[in-house]
């Protein structure tokens, strides 16, 4: 059986349901569910958030990865899109941090609010004010309820997830309400692990190593500044009620786009914060995005996800 035949695919599900039609393609996600998954059990949900320097790529670029990950883990896999910074921004269309991360947080809020539709026939109904039976709320095409989340962020998406799950405002001088990103208690409770691969964490260090990145994408995404310490998650503290979350930092020896010092610094920072952090720096040898096409990356994720219960 091919990978495509082994999973049920639910494509272009909107996670911002308040938008007028047609809904933005950036506020949709795809879901890949193994066909042999038990309808009577609630399985962890793996969410892979793509990279692309905050301004490129699409969930459709990672279909094969999602299928393989679903088949190898036996878990549903979700691929969300998020709004991108234009490659040639103008005053009318520019999009800057933290808007990308806010979209990802909106996706997480959405998936934590939907119900397991496959069990609705057996779920107890509630009664409205007129005594009429009502089924639990749900969204057509979502056959799960994510009681456990395993979140995977690649490249710039590692920064986005850290911006959500770490308290960046604790060291930022730009901590206005409009820039606050705070996950709900439900999201924190349900998130069992964060996997960050080839991540960007310290922007000043990244510019020092790759000076051309400043004009290539950093100024468009974060604005023109002498220093980006305020938005570098390398200094952010862990959030209250997040001590149960396990972290895995992945870096490939073959990555030429993001240096290993980024991942090592983030690993060290999380250790200093007493986070439950692990690393994989020696197993992958391919390039920055090439690792997503190989079996080893999926196997690293599979082994970590399976090991998480034993790490409690």
TrEMBL record:
InterPro entries recorded for this chain? AB_hydrolase_3, AB_hydrolase_fold, GDXG_lipolytic_enzyme
Q: Which Pfam families match?
A: Abhydrolase_3
Q: Which UniProt keywords apply?
A: Hydrolase
Query: Alpha/beta hydrolase fold-3 domain: which residues?
Result: 47-276
Give GO terms: molecular function aspect only.
hydrolase activity
Q: What PANTHER family has UniProt attached to this entry?
A: AB HYDROLASE SUPERFAMILY PROTEIN C4A8.06C, KYNURENINE FORMAMIDASE
Would you tell me the protein name for this molecule? Answer: Alpha/beta hydrolase fold-3 domain-containing protein
